[in-house]
Amino acid sequence: MKNELKILLAAPRGFCAGVDRAIEIVKKTLNKYGSPVYVRHEIVHNKNVVESLKKLGAIFVEELSEISDLSRPVIFSAHGVPKKIPEEAKLKKIFYVDATCPLVSKVHRETEQLHKNGYDIVLIGHRDHPEVIGTMGQLPKDSIKLIETIDEVKNLKSTKPLAYVTQTTLSVDDTKEIIDALKLKFPEAKGPIKEDICYATTNRQAAVKKIAPNCEMFFIIGSSNSSNSARLVEVAKKSGCKNSELIFYGKKVPIEKIKNCKTIGLSSGASAPEELVQNFISEIKKNMNVSIEEVITANEKVVFKLPKELH
């Protein structure tokens, strides 16, 4: 006799417009220019996506110096790159296509504008994340400070007017706490006109927040190096489902734990393909009688245009 299980499935979940666009850019570049095409850094943080693009003829490198054939196109990942990377590509006469998410490019433009206008700039984000490296790399060294926690706000000094920008994939609530602390210390601190945390991050967190209190366990499908996926796990825990975990490439479905549940929550990070969600559900169905309720908290209609090189 199989146990009954209800799955509350978050919507929206999975791919955002920036990820869709980045994957499309790799495929279209391969179609137009043939293979191989080089991609600097994982195009999006998901092993399945990367492996499927490798099969089509994409070669992933961490630096341009690893490229053996400079006559082939190179694509910059959705996370964005420091200014010196396109400059290096131009010096080496490499043809490149920039797949930076337009919402990340918006943050890049904001930082440049603020720098021009003489502000001290603070970036709220996670050290060593490629998006943060890319944003900080838009400006001369030491003209932008990184803050990861509220504690770091205490040590912040500024002689000039202060402005802040944020990584696009942060926890909405944690970021608000840091911004509040920043504004308490620097009441004049200038924020972006439209906030930097992207619509998809915000929507996915809101959906998880709504579902989590009604679940005994919560699962987020996503890669271990995906910032937005890791934030979804944190949001689920904070919203009342302590047993929340990330299901990443190669991790087994913890079926014995799930068998003890009546209701679980399920969502996926912005770089996780929907087929991984469906595979997860199929795995559970082998062992339990499953009913699925999709909980829709927003409808996303955002689409980003492809770069002109691919028109």
Element string (H = helix, E = strand): EHEHEEHEHEHEHEHHEHEHEHE
Cα distance spanning the termini: 56 Å
Radius of gyration: 21 Å
Question: Spans of 5+ residues with little confidence (pLDDT < 50)?
Answer: none
CATH architecture of the largest domain: 3-Layer(aba) Sandwich
Largest sheet: 5 strands, parallel
Number of strands: 12
- Estimate nothing, just give the exact number of structural domains: 3
Mean pLDDT comes to 97
Report strand order across the widest sheet: 10-9-11-1-12
Describe the global form. flat
Q: Helical proportion?
A: 25-40%
- How much of the sequence lies in strands comes to 15-25%
- Classified in CATH, the superfamily of the largest domain is 4-hydroxy-3-methylbut-2-enyl diphosphate reductase, catalytic domain
CATH class of the largest domain: Alpha Beta
Short synopsis of the structure:
The chain has about 300 residues and is α/β, with parallel strands linked by helices. It contains 11 helices and 12 strands. About 40% of the residues lie in helices and about 20% in strands.
Would you write up a description of this structure?
The protein is an alpha/beta fold. It folds into three domains: 3-15 and 199-296, Cobalt-precorrin-4 Transmethylase, domain 1 (3-Layer(aba) Sandwich), CATH 3.40.1010.20; 17-98, Rossmann fold (3-Layer(aba) Sandwich); 102-196, 4-hydroxy-3-methylbut-2-enyl diphosphate reductase, catalytic domain (Cobalt-precorrin-4 Transmethylase, domain 1, 3-Layer(aba) Sandwich), CATH 3.40.1010. It contains eleven helices and twelve strands. The strands form three sheets. The protein has a five-stranded parallel sheet, with helices on both faces. Strands 3-2-4-5 form a four-stranded parallel sheet. The protein has a three-stranded parallel sheet with strand order 7-6-8, with helices on both faces. Helix 4 (102-116) runs parallel beside helix 5 (130-136) and helix 8 runs parallel beside helix 9. The radius of gyration is 21 Å and the shape is flat. The model has no long low-confidence stretch (mean pLDDT 97).
